[in-house]
Design goal:
two-stranded parallel sheet, two-stranded antiparallel sheet, alpha+beta, globular
C-alpha cells in the first residue's frame, strides 16, 4: 500500500473476529491508499463544531437510525453578476451521495466520529431487528469512482479503483462492531468477487452482440 500518513493504528486495532479475512475479501480493491488526514488536521475544528450544532434538526417521529445515515452533497459555488454588475456568490447542489462518497478523512475529527457513530447506531438497530426475526443482516457498503471503467473478462483492472476505497474500512468496522461476535464472525467480501462469473457472462454476451452487429453492418 502506498501511503505516507495512513492511520495504521486504527487498522491494527480492528479486532480480528469482527472482520474475518478482511484483506482477503477487500484487499484486491486497494490500489494504493490516499489518506486525507493532513487535510483533516488543518480543518477549523471549532468552526466545524459550530456548523454541526446549528445544522441539527429533529427527524420525524418514528424515524429509525437506519432510515437515514448521511447524504454528503456535491456543492458547486459560483459568482453571478446582478444588474449593477455586482458579484453575488451562489451555490448549486449537483448531486447527493450515499456511503459511496470519497474523502471521509477530509472531515475534522469530531465530525468524522459523528458520522461513524451514526453508522454504529444504524447497525445496532439492524442487528436487534434481525435477532428478533432470526435473520442474518446483509450490509452493502457502496463505493464510487468507476463511472467510466471498463471490465476485462468480467473483472475490473485494479488500476481503475479509487485510492479512497480504503476509507470504507471505517464504515465496515462500525457495522462489524455491532453485528459480529467471537461466536458469530462477519464475512466481508467485495461485490467484484461475488459477481465475477455474472460479469464474465454479461461481457461475453456483449462481445458476441457487437461482433454480430458489425457483421450485419458490413453486409
Amino acid at each position: 500500500m502506498n501511503c505516507n500518513s495512513c492511520d495504521f493504528d486504527y487498522l491494527n486495532n480492528i479486532v480480528d473476529y469482527r472482520i474475518a479475512d478482511l484483506f482477503n475479501g477487500m484487499g484486491s480493491l486497494f490500489y494504493g491508499i490516499d489518506d486525507k488526514v493532513l487535510i483533516s488536521n488543518d480543518q477549523d475544528q471549532e468552526l466545524a463544531d459550530f456548523f454541526e450544532k446549528i445544522s441539527e434538526i429533529d427527524l420525524p417521529i418514528g424515524t429509525k437510525a437506519y432510515d437515514f445515515v448521511c447524504c454528503p452533497p456535491d456543492v458547486i459555488a459560483y459568482y453571478l453578476k446582478d444588474s449593477n454588475n455586482t458579484k453575488k456568490l451562489e451555490y448549486n447542489c449537483s448531486e447527493i451521495n450515499g456511503t459511496g462518497f470519497g474523502g471521509m478523512r477530509n472531515l475534522p475529527k469530531n465530525q468524522l466520529e459523528s458520522i461513524l457513530d451514526t453508522y454504529k447506531n444504524a447497525a445496532r438497530e439492524i442487528t436487534d431487528e434481525c435477532k428478533k426475526k432470526s435473520e442474518h443482516p446483509l450490509i452493502i457498503v457502496e463505493n464510487s469512482g468507476r463511472e467510466s471503467a471498463e471490465r476485462i473478462n468480467g473483472k475490473y483492472p485494479i488500476s481503475v479503483n479509487s485510492k479512497l476505497i480504503w476509507e470504507k474500512l471505517f464504515i465496515v468496522d462500525k457495522f462489524a462492531q455491532q453485528i459480529c461476535s467471537s461466536g458469530n464472525p462477519c464475512y466481508v467480501d467485495s461485490f467484484d468477487n461475488i459477481a465475477a462469473c455474472y460479469f464474465e457472462d454479461i461481457d461475453l454476451v456483449k462481445s458476441v452482440f457487437y461482433k454480430k452487429k458489425m457483421l450485419i453492418i458490413k453486409k
